Q: What sequence folds into this?
């Protein structure tokens, strides 16, 4: 199943602040998760229905809306994300 990825405006700003290599790695991880469902994904305990995808030292926060939609909420450095 291929899922559609939608970014919130704040998440787009977070992504734009990163250098191009990190952007490409995050993009590749999102494409992999959207197409195969594989990736380092965990449900967040303190935020129901939210998940995080780990990409090196970066965390991509998202929700699964409908079975085929991934809504990206934000991207943050591991040390500042939680």
A:
């Amino acid at each position: 199943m291929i899922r559609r990825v939608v970014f919130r405006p704040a998440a787009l700003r977070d992504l734009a602040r990163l250098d191009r290599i990190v952007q490409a790695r995050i993009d590749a991880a999102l494409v992999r998760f959207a197409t195969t469902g594989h990736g380092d994904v965990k449900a967040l305990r303190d935020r129901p229905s939210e998940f995080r995808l780990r990409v090196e030292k970066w965390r991509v926060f998202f929700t699964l809306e409908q079975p085929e939609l991934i809504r990206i909420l934000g991207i943050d450095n591991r040390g500042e994300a939680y």
